[in-house]
Amino acid sequence: MNKSEIIKVEHLVIDFGGFKAVDDISFAVNRGEIFGFLGANGAGKTTTIRTLCGLLNPSSGKVYVDGKDVSSSTEMLKNRIGYMSQKFTLYPDLTVMENMEFAGSLYRMGSSAVQKRSKELFSFIGLEKIPSGPVRDLSGGTRQILSLAAALIHDPELIFLDEPTAGTSPKTRLDFWNLIKRLAEQDKTIFVTTHYMDEAENCGRIVLMERGKIIAMDSPDGLKSRYFPCPIMEISFLNVNMQQAVYDEIAAKGLGTPSIFGSGLRIISSNKEELQKWLADRQDILKYKAVPPSLEDVFLKAISHAEHHN
Fold first, then answer.
1. pTM, rounded to two decimals
2. How far apart (Å, rounded) are the C-alpha atoms in residues 20 and 141?
3. N or C terminus of the chain: which is more exposed, having fewer CB within 10 Å?
4. Domain 229-292 has what CATH class?
């Protein structure tokens, strides 16, 4: 590992009785980076993150954190790692502070240290008043953010977040990602898994996972440039019944690769000028515009590319 890397994974395989949940993946994560694992449910994201935390042993391959083999250094690395699983991790019958006390005890923190650190964390997450009742009475979004606070109780430098915003409201997702960015500003390294494409835009680099394999890895902008060197043209119609006819004509004339998009079309074309000239002459088209690709576009293209080369 070079000095800038805090995680290095070499040919990792996790095999559950003949089923490869993780299939020969390699990557490295830099210090202070927000690094995202993006993929559908079942892609191998949670299995990977649990292995990086030392909760699962590799079937083959190596996982290093700060130069140490995780398989033989779990206890040594424990205080440097914070882990928030995708399942709700607080005890619902305990109060907020009782949960923080319990989390701190796992790292042999005394009561005064837990109190001091909890005060810092509650200020960080914007919790002005600490609820006195059991955690089960709090909203789902508040519980998720408090789960993050519990994972940070021992001030770890490397933070693993497994689907941290799954099932939460749009506002909670926004608040949560604001906290993640602020953690990165404190030189924390954040390793986050998600199936929300828009969330992955916040990561410095992302890995696209599909069926246990890495199918692409780069920054969001790098992936967009790689898979979509030309802009996407988005068009809508005066008469939606023209959708299929225009689709067929674009494909037949070789003006680009069209796809159905709601009541309109999206076209990927390497000949933008010829396509725009053709669109301008059409009286049945209401409007058209060039739009940047989304990470969902990238993910679908990457899957198609990977299947084509397998």
1. 0.87
2. 34
3. C
4. alpha beta
